[in-house]
Amino acid sequence: MDMQKPVMVAGLGNPGRRYAESRHNAGFQVVTSLGASLAVPLDKNKFDAEFGRGRIGGCDIFLVRPQSFMNRSGMPVQKLARFFDIEFSNVVVVYDDIDLPLGRIRIREKGGHGGHNGIRSLMEQLGTPEFVRVRVGVGRPEGEQDVADYVLSGFSSKEKEIWLRVVEKARDAICCILQEGVSAAMQKYHL
After folding, report:
1. Is residue 182 within 8 Å of residue 1, measured between CB atoms?
2. Nearest-5° angle of CA 73, CA 78, CA 84?
3. For a tag site, which of 62, 112, 137, 167 has the least CB within 10 Å?
4. Separation CA 103–CA 191 (nearest Å)
5. CA-CA distance, 60 to 151, in Å (whole number)?
6. Which residues participate in tRNA binding (predicted)?
7. Digit-coded pLDDT (tens) for 38-50
8. How confident is the model at residue 148 (pLDDT cuts 50, 70, 90)?
9. Per-residue confidence at 191, pLDDT binned at 50, 70, 90?
10. C-beta separation of 64 from 11 below 8 A
11. In Å, how far are 33, 66, 80, 94, 138 from 74, measured between CA atoms?
12. Which stretches within the chain are classed as H helix?
């Protein structure tokens, strides 16, 4: 990442009230929290995305919530990045990960999609796997529960207490990425 150039932080999720509190909307929730903490309202709309523009330290940032549903997240991110001249390597994507236990965060500079349709869409539209990923653990379903039903469901009251702390931790990890770099954030937030 080149912090001298604009950075996009894209939170993946599904639009609408029905999905607002779901596990699959982890990215939306983290970006919303980041916007509130930085006083950057996500009140602009362009290319099927809600976004806001601000600064953290000396870095010009764009906070983005694609509104095209998870499996088509790539197009709004790609269009906004091109419009605002943001290099794809300066895109940070935050999203839910069922392969991580609830409360865990993993940061990577690049990689595969791991079966995540939002990341698959981003890789297809950006034409590269080289963007930063902040994976937020939501845990796996127990027993025979369908994975799709699980990620589209909300958290139990017990899980919600943990989840609120996870959102804050992921928000802080992104701030660390933007101020200190990916390596520093990996050292501090891979707990």
Report:
1. yes
2. 130
3. 112
4. 9
5. 32
6. 19, 69, 71, 117
7. 999 999 999 999 9
8. confident
9. low
10. yes
11. 22, 8, 10, 13, 22
12. 26-37, 74-83, 117-126, 147-151, 157-180, 182-189
Question: How far apart (Å, rounded) are the C-alpha atoms in residues 23 and 5?
Answer: 32
Instruction: Tell me the CB-side half-sphere exposure of residue 102, using CA atoms within 13 A.
Output: 19
Q: Domain spans of the chain?
A: 7-189
Report how far residue 70's alpha carbon sits from residue 131's, in angstroms, rounded to the nearest whole number: 17
Distance, C-alpha 169 to centroid of its chain: 13
Q: Is 19 annotated as a binding residue?
A: yes
Question: What is the identity of the amino acid at 179?
Answer: Q
Ordered strands of the 7-11 beta sheet: 44-46, 49-56, 59-66, 7-11, 91-97, 132-137, 105-108
117 assigned binding-site residue: yes
Tokens of 118: 């939002």
Helix 26-37, helix 157-180: angle, nearest 10? 60
Dihedral, 177, 61, 89, 73 alpha carbons, nearest 10:
110
Q: Which residue type occupies 96?
A: D
Catalytic residue ranges: 24
Q: How far apart are CA 37 and CA 60, in angstroms?
A: 16
The residue assigned the tokens 């702390």 is: 165
